[in-house]
Design goal:
Blueprint lengths: L1 H10 L4 H6 L8 H4 L7 E5 L4 H12 L3 E6 L2 H18 L4 E6 L5 H14 L5 E4 L18 H25 L4 E5 L22 H10 L1 H26 L4 E5 L14 H9 L9 H8 L10 E3 L3 E2 L9 H15 L5
Helix pairs in contact: 4-5, 6-7, 7-9, 9-12
Length: about 325
């Protein structure tokens, strides 16, 4: 798709076509460009499949110690088995470990963070990569959040802070956190991108979902959560000068996230997607390159380029409101 992509970039330089479906040909090669990561400790959430797996693969290739943070231990162990075989084949010094993490349950999130801190005193890179996409809109987390908002946004917000703060105190170097968002953040509802009545279960939420309709509701809720990823990244970058927090759109990638799509929607989507290996490029660039040091609070898009999010993600009033909301939600689990 390289020739077509470059043509479309010239013809349509500022559209979804040019930076999502047909971005310009990549000049970044993770196997060539990711530096040696010996001594670095990394967590990749949702690394048992898809973009997370490909990200972990490149990190262990460059000798990092990588925690595969997933809810399903069986799937995680299988991913680790395959990655260990890859490490052996390539004769690298990369290490792998499992961290049980269920982002849809804040009790489990806190437990996972505590378990990690009992094992490690540093965390150099955190990829907030796990997520759910376009699931049935009536699904909720254990703490009654919309499943996509609770998993993609609230769970990651609680998980990331303790280990990153400890790491900076221990090493004196800025850890980096990558928030895997999506171009679908443009599907977020309304003027601000956050429909507050839908974040938690209840009658108000039910009425709004009925008003939107099933298919529309699923996409709006997903877009809202992906906008939340960008907002969270900016919030953390502003609040904590000791870390580098960056959000990104990985590209239109064929992954397990599309498992809830059906029929014609699934077929059309599959025609427009890139191989999963491409999906790791942008977040690896942001997390490991020298350029990444200056990308705090920025938004990236494929392939390995500085991008520009929807203007609603840049609204300081929305950022402040989301910050206050998230702080209030995780307060019972912090401290």
């Amino acid at each position: 798709m390289g020739i077509l992509a470059n043509l479309l970039v010239r013809l349509c330089p500022d559209t979804d076509l040019s930076y999502t479906i047909f971005p310009p040909a990549s000049t970044y090669d993770p196997e060539r460009d990711v530096p040696d990561l010996t001594g670095k400790v990394v967590i990749v959430t949702g690394a048992n499949v898809g973009i997370g797996y490909e990200t972990a693969k490149q990190l262990v290739l460059k000798n990092a110690k990588v925690y595969i943070a997933c809810r399903d231990e069986t799937k995680a162990r299988e991913a680790i088995r395959k990655l260990e075989a890859f490490v052996k084949e390539r004769q690298t010094k990369g290490q792998l470990d499992f961290l049980k993490l269920d982002l849809s349950d804040l009790d489990a999130v806190k437990k996972a963070a505590e378990e990690f801190l009992a094992k490690e005193k540093q965390l150099d890179l955190l990829f907030c990569n796990a997520g759910v996409m376009k699931c049935p809109p009536d699904l909720l987390t254990k703490q009654n959040y919309d499943l996509q908002w609770g998993t993609n946004v609230v769970g990651h917000h609680l998980f990331c802070l303790p280990a990153l703060e400890t790491s900076f105190t221990t090493t004196g170097t800025k850890p980096r956190i990558m928030h895997t968002s999506s171009s679908a953040h443009k599907m977020a509802p309304g003027e601000t991108g956050i429909e507050w009545s839908t974040l938690e279960g209840g009658e108000e939420r039910d009425r709004m979902l009925e008003k939107w309709g099933g298919l529309t509701a699923s996409w709006k809720l997903y877009g809202q959560s992906k906008l939340g990823n960008i907002l969270t990244s900016t919030i953390l970058s502003t609040r904590y000068p000791y870390l580098i927090s960056t959000s990104l759109h990985p590209g239109g990638i064929a992954t397990d996230l599309q498992r809830h799509l059906r029929g014609l929607e699934a077929q059309v989507t599959s025609w427009l997607l890139w191989p999963v290996e491409m999906g790791a490029q942008t977040q690896l660039w942001g997390a490991t390159s020298e350029e990444g040091e200056g990308l705090g609070g920025k938004y990236l898009w494929p392939w390995a380029r500085l991008g520009r999010p929807d203007k609603r993600a840049l609204n300081p009033d929305t950022q402040k409101k989301v910050e206050e909301y998230l702080d209030a939600q995780v307060k019972p689990w912090v401290g």
